[in-house]
Structures are given as C-alpha cells and as structure tokens.
C-alpha cells in the first residue's frame, strides 16, 4: 500500500480506534469525500469558515471544516488551533481527526501584471455529529427535550468545560472564549460535545487572566469584562455557560442588561412554567432541580467575575445533587416532601439569590456602555426571559 493510499484509509481506521491520533490528510482526498466541497454537503458556515459533510468509501461520515485564510498570522493561528486540538480528548469535546495545510501557487493578475500567488488551504477534520448544533433544540417549541434531556445536555457541557479548565493535556487551562449553543454539537445519542477552538486561549498555571487586542465572539454570550476591557479569564467561559444554562431552562437567551428579566421572582416564575409544562403530577425533585440550576446560571452571569462559581464548584454540585436524588428515589413517598436539593447551591461561597440580584442590577446599569442602544439588534439577538 502506498503512502497516499494509507493516508486516505487513516480516517476509516481512526473511527474504529478511539485511541488513534489525528493525522495529516491530503487535500485531494478531502475534496473527494465532500464532492469537491459541494454546497449540497454543506453543514454550516460562520465567520471562520464552512463545514461540509464528508462521506468515506465505507459509508461513514466525518465533518470537514475549511478555514477562511486570514490576512495576518494565518500560519501561526492555524498551528495554535491544531496544537490545542491535538491535546484535547474527552467524551464531551468533539473528536479531532486530522488536518490539512497545503499551499498552491495560482497564476493571477496583480497590479497590471501576472504573478504566481500563494493560495494556502487550511482544513480541519472532525467526527460527524448527526444531530447538529444545540441551538436547534433549545427553544420552548422543541419536541422531545423534556427537563431530563436538557439536564443531561447541561451536565455534559459542564464536564467538557471542566476538562478544558482543569484536566486537558496542556500546561495550564484552555479558555474557549466562544462557548455558545452553535458551538455545542450533539451526537446520535444527544450527547453534547464542545466544538470550535478557533478563539481559544491558553492560561498557564501562574497567569489567571490576560488581555485581548481584538474581540471576536458572539456578544450575547460574551462576559462584560471581555467585552468592555478585553480581559480573558476562566470566568469568561463561566459567564457563557451561565447564559447557556438559563437558555436551556427558559428556551430563550438572556439579555444581561434587561432589569425586568432578572428581577427577584424570576426563578419562581420559570419553575411555575415548568410545572405547567410537565405531564402528569410534576416531581418535586425535578422542580427543585430546575430551581437550583437556574440559580447557578444566574450566578454564572454575575457582573463581578470573582463572584461567579468555578466549573469545579458547579460539577461538585452536580455530584451532590445526583447522589441525593438517587438515594431519595428509593425513599417512601411520605418522605418526598423532605427534599431540599436547593441546599447544594447554597453551599457555594455566595450570598442569597435575592440579595445578589438586587445588587447586581445596579452593577449591570453601571456596566452598560452609553452607546449600548446603538448596537445592531440582530447582532445582540436577545429576547426577554419573561416571554418564556
């Protein structure tokens, strides 16, 4: 078997072997499996490129992402992203299969004369996620996403973020910086996996924050300190996670500057809506669970980033709740009223929710830029949570 043929077979081998390492892939092969990057096989597109479905000779599918060539530091940026992807491996992170970086020289006209111009082609290959991105499933009208399914998705996102912040094979932490439903993909079993590390940054063990010179993120999920000051920290991902948690529970994206949507009886209002939506007699444990998660989401979007819980604290709360829930499922029905799952949330080093929200509304007013109302509404794309 020649070298070119073996590289073409690499994807089929990798999909069968979870321990196989990502590899270099020929551009021509990626053209073949995507039908020359046909629009009919396009899965999605964004500011950084287009994603296509690739079909292997054995019928299995992969996702091929073509990156838009950047004018500055394109080689450095591409290498940085590949470096990150080569080191991350977790059940809640989209699996990276391979890369392609080839340069062609095309004969073009430039300033009145013909020259050979470099045309770099940069592509990334990932496992195929048949259920697409999370944003298609979290509206109130979504079919089949009951609370338990939403909880499992939230839990998976939390564990993926915990891995990035604490356990990945990189010295320090990976801060994703673009955590949003569009970058959370779902496999055939609706297991969530974090994707798109094009904006990710590394924070070593000594540095807990840095600063960005250019902001490239979806504003609806961007932490205020990153938006207004360019501060990059783990807490920026926590803020984005909070917006996602609230969106998963309410069906709508939070507007952090909407004082009405974040008023103090908001939690009870949302829990009441869930009681009305649940079929039959709703489980009191489920209602307490929803309340606890909504409170965690609200604390994640605190204006003061130091007051947000860490992902470690959030995952510890998940473990405590599941242990409590599993034990109490075996209790007699007479003991059901004694459940107090909200205690898990209060164990975090933070004040009562009512006091926090009252103070935080004033901080939100102070943090709002004077020209906030001039921003394009479609770019912010938020709705009041009360419309749930």
Automatic annotation (TrEMBL):
This is Protein kinase domain-containing protein. ATP binds at residue 65. Signal peptide: none annotated. The keyword Flavoprotein does not apply. One of its GO terms (molecular function) is ATP binding. The keyword Cytoplasm does not apply. It holds the Pfam family Pkinase.
